[in-house]
């Protein structure tokens, strides 16, 4: 099981390396940090690394197939196979579409909406949710969540969207304003340590 998780973790790591958000002078003690923001996907390498590999849908169907089969066997009067497979495929599709939208260039699409007086705060939290995941990859993991809501992040304490977002490349911010999410709950920290040890 850990081996299959490591393959996805490697893909996730490659995607983050190409679409990072990090302070240029992280180790410096200066009050102002320069943020390097490669988050918007603009080049082919970023596009290639942002989507799951072609076999991933088959893997996800394989993971959920025993559960779907058990439900169909125990409750044969309900269409578990059809609806179960449709739900897995829809979740996969929703993830890919939302992930592509989150990585749109903010200057061409998101920034105008973020600056609106009424809906701007909501739009900022939606865009910032995944942007902050790229600044701190152990936070904001539930991209598609449940019907678009990051319920798992709320439950496990990994949800974090700060007041100020590093939207532009080479943007300067006060060090105290740079996003710094709280650590995840003990269960998530333990799971991270197990996957990390298996990868060594």
What does this structure look like?
This protein has 200 residues and is mainly alpha-helical. The protein has one domain. Helix content is 56%, strand content 6%. It has eight helices and three strands. Strands 1-2-3 form a three-stranded antiparallel beta sheet. A hairpin with an 8-residue loop joins β1 and β2 (32-37). 20% of the residues are buried.
**Helix-strand makeup class:** mainly alpha
Largest sheet: 3 strands, antiparallel
Mean of pLDDT: 83
Globular, elongated, flat, extended or rod-shaped: what is the shape?
globular
Would you kindly provide a brief summary of this structure?
With about 200 residues, this protein is mainly alpha-helical. The protein has helices at about 1-20, 45-50, 55-75, 80-100, 105-115, 120-135, 150-155, 185-200, and strands at about 20-25, 30-35, 170-175.
Keywords:
single chain; 200 residues; three-stranded antiparallel beta sheet; 8 helices; 56% helix; globular
């Amino acid at each position: 099981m850990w081996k299959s998780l490591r393959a996805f973790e490697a893909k996730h790591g490659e995607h983050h390396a190409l679409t990072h958000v990090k302070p240029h002078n992280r180790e410096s003690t200066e009050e102002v940090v320069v943020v390097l923001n490669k988050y918007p996907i603009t080049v082919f390498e970023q596009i290639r690394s942002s989507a799951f590999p072609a076999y991933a849908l088959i893997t996800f169907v394989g993971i959920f197939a025993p559960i779907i089969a058990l439900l169909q066997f125990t409750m044969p009067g309900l269409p578990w196979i059809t609806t179960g497979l449709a739900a897995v495929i829809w979740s996969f599709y929703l993830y890919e579409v939302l992930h592509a939208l989150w990585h749109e260039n903010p200057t061409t699409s998101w920034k105008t909406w973020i600056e609106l007086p009424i809906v701007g705060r909501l739009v900022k939290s939606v865009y910032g949710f995944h942007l902050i995941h790229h600044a701190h990859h152990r936070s904001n993991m539930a991209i598609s969540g449940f019907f678009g809501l990051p319920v798992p992040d709320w439950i496990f304490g990994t949800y974090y969207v700060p007041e100020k977002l590093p939207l532009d490349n080479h943007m300067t911010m006060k060090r105290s304003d740079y996003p710094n999410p709280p650590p995840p709950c003990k269960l998530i920290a333990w799971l991270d340590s197990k996957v990390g040890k298996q990868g060594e």
